[in-house]
Amino acid sequence: MLNLIIFGPPGAGKGTQSEKIIDRYQLVHIATGDLLRAERKAGTVLGNEANEYISRGELVPDSVVVGMVRNFMSSHAGAGGFIFDGFPRTIPQAEALDAMLLEFNTAISAVLGLEVVEDELVKRLMLRGQTSGRVDDQDEDTIRNRFREYQNKTLPLQGYYSEQGKYQSVQGIGEIDEIFTNLCACIDTVKS
Ligand code: AMP
Q: What backbone phi and psi angles, to 5 degrees, belong to 112?
């Protein structure tokens, strides 16, 4: 199984690159932000609870997100591999993911970190906010809060996966296809 994590701050291009990676490597996409927004749209209790955090630019509690990922993976048991997008975002989530994958007799193959400077990220998110309809892309305070959460809670995952020898960093500024080519070069080194 090929299991990838696409890593990086909000606006780094994780969703865009995930779509291209899925096409080439036939992976199942797990984007926790998309799953949470779908729950909200469906008006579930989980969705309404999560919305409070999302609209403030805060992370949703680990137990909620981990449970959601577990359900999703169980319902895609025949998958040839997964690409995790926007998950894990904390060390406890990463530990839970390692344990879940072990239950499935597999593991993370590589973590691909997209490097983009903050000024460029704010520009991209404000632009995306004009068309995505996402409330958390439209307000600068919320965007800044998402970066703070990323710095404090998500960035430590670089160390977590570097210690496992799985973290690879890729320049996230440039042409979409050029970035994709560089990501594929990393993936091809770990693909069995
Ligand atoms: P995203 O679409 O990945 O930018 O996620 C949008 C929002 O959903 C985030 O700002 C968080 O509030 C929430 N969220 C998505 N994934 C996670 C996660 N793995 N852990 C906690 N909160 C998450």
A: -105, 110
Domain range spanning residue 57?
Answer: 2-116+166-191
CATH number at residue 19: 3.40.50.300
What's the gap in Å between 57 CA and the centre of ligand 1? 8
Please check whether residue 106 lies inside any domain of the structure.
yes
9 ligand 1 Cβ < 6 A: no
Three-state DSSP class for 122? helix
Number of domains in the chain: 1
Q: Is residue 124 part of a domain?
A: no
pLDDT in tens, 35-84: 999 999 999 999 999 999 999 999 999 999 999 999 999 999 889 999 99
Tell me the per-residue pLDDT of 84-117, one tens digit each, with 9 for 90 and over. Answer: 999 999 999 999 999 999 998 999 999 999 999 9
**Residues with a known catalytic role:** 14, 89, 128, 134, 146
**Residue 74 covered by a domain:** yes
Closest ligand 1 atom to Cα of 31: 3
pTM metric for this prediction: 0.96
- Within 13 Å and on the Cβ side, how many CA atoms surround 127? 8
Q: Classify burial at 189, counting beta carbons within 10 Å of its beta carbon; exposed 0-12, middle 13-18, buried 19 or more.
A: exposed
Q: Which atom of ligand 1 is nearest to the CA of 87?
A: 19
- Residue 59 CB less than 6 A away from ligand 1: yes
